[in-house]
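Reviewer 2 asked us to include a model.

Predict the structure of this chain.
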Amino acid sequence: MLRFRICRFFLLLWLLSTTHTAFSAPKVPEIITDNGLIYCTNASGFSFNPQTADAGTSMNVVTEQIYNKLFEPHNNSAKVEPSLAQSYSISADGKTIMINLRRGVQFHHTAWFTPTRNLNADDVVFSLNRVLGHNTSLPEFAADSNENVNRQYQIFHELAKKARFPYFESVKLNQKIKQVESIDPYTVKIELFAPDASVLSHLASQYAVILSQEYALQLNADDNLSQLDELPVGTGAYQVKDYFRSQYIRLQRHSHYWGKKPSIPHIVIDLSTDKTGRLAKFFNNECQIASFPEPSQLGLLKNNGERFQMTMMDGMNLSYLAFNFLRPAMQDKDTRHAIAQAINRERIIKHIYYDTATIANRIIPPVSWASSNSRRGFLYQYNPQQAKSVLQDKNLKLEMWVVDQEQVYNPSPIKMAEMIKSDLEKVGVNVKVRSVSRNFLMRNLNNKTEDYDLILSGWLTSHLDPDSFLRPILSCNTVNEITNLSNWCSPKFDSLLDFALIHHNIDMRASDYYSAQQEILTELPIFPIANIKRLLISNAQVRGIDVSPFGNINFEKLSIRGKK
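Predicted model (structure tokens):
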């Protein structure tokens, strides 16, 4: 079977190479192939501004190179370390954060924007106020004499200012941060409504980038504020040189970068192919790094250890099956427990993830400091006989929705749904699988017409603090939103989450989150399936690859052996 797969794969490689001229994207400049690096990834969820990206999706690697944040996670721990911040302090009552900014940080000079000053407190206040829903840093639209034209511009202008920020909405950041203000050009004061140990982690997430207020003001004056999210200007190690939609992004080294000068001057992000196509390009040396490879094809690397390398890291993610508490059949706890016992997760790990994932025995992934791996084990092991004794006489006919879109936490959602359907049919449950689009799901949630009994979903975050892992998908504040697909609400669970935020002691917080997890595993609004390892493959000539639990790599640390 493996020999057949290998032969089929290399036949595909040959077909791709013979049709290159007819279907290829614009040729990558020789300056890249001679003195740069090509990174192949997917275009799913792509956004030039992570502030506006969907919560719980895998952010593309591009924005990590373009922008900086106030803080960065420290060695995958609960701590953060300053980045654009030089230092910070927290008041004795835990409600005020003072941030001293790094000086001499320059924004990108581009063909469409030339900054006149370095980063300062105005940029931080603008960036944070924007995601909090405060537009105090931008002037209002100015009327003119042409009423009809003016009205059209005004509508466009207001819509641009009302851009959504899904991640910050999912963690209710505007209910955590009361006010952001500048004390002087390099000091920012953040006032909280109440002590909250998660705020610094949110500011270290990949969504919390700092934008140029000066750039926003220029766009605002031209009534073109939407370009703030489409033509990126940041302070990162690389800046955008060219962008060919759904094909590639060309980055060039930021010549005035405040940090260590990157070794590689030019990088192309290839967005043009699916998993098999990326692997084909990788073996053909058309890209030196490939992310999200097809797990079933990873065996092809084993005989090429000298040429290729695979980097793997436990991920901060979870795939799960959610029970819709709005449906009468799903309100019965015994039914939910029996369904969980009927699902063979080992088979899913083997045939969906090809052993690039582990069975999820908790809600918080093991890589997090709050996972409590030493605690009591998982409550619902595979036991189809026990499940059948509970379910076979119930004559259940359930509808399971699945969003037909590959995600990091579920590379084959339809296939997984069919496997779960097969498991449940063996214990007497009739399941209808319905493939839906994300837009269809969101429309039904907005209209409160979601009539699924079960739905396959998942979650991932960009830092290890469990508040942003548990609160969006299970808190009362997110019921009937796309993050809380179970529509479960438990005041006891919410109070445990809130209590975990009032102190900074890691052991005490971990204990609170252990109790919160036990509440979930007892009530079972969601059934955890798998924790997926973040991995990518690279040419052995590439040095400095360090994959984070969030799937990111830092381009400024990369080098290519034999190239300067």
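Residues 1-25, 148-153 have pLDDT under 50 and may be disordered. The CA atoms of residues 260 and 556 lie 7 Å apart. We have added this to the supplementary material.
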